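ok here's DUF7683 domain-containing protein:
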Amino acid sequence: MTIVYTIDVYSKVDETLLLEIEIPENKLSDIAEIMGWSEEDKKEFSLGIGVYNINENQAIKLESLLCKKFYSSNNALQISGGSV
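and the structure:
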């Protein structure tokens, strides 16, 4: 089983998925720190369990970590992991 971790960018207007950014597994510790997760949250996320909302402050830090621009106040952001 392979687990894929992504940041999902949705339109606040109609909830359309606008962008999906894959997160490299080697960034999970940094992601957990940015997201402020407990050890249990981190473990569950690494197993592909859970969806979390991303706030503006977290988004800006995630953009820097991943070298990708995706934050806009017009969009809703979530981070998730799941098996494929």
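+1. DSSP finds three helices and four strands in the chain.
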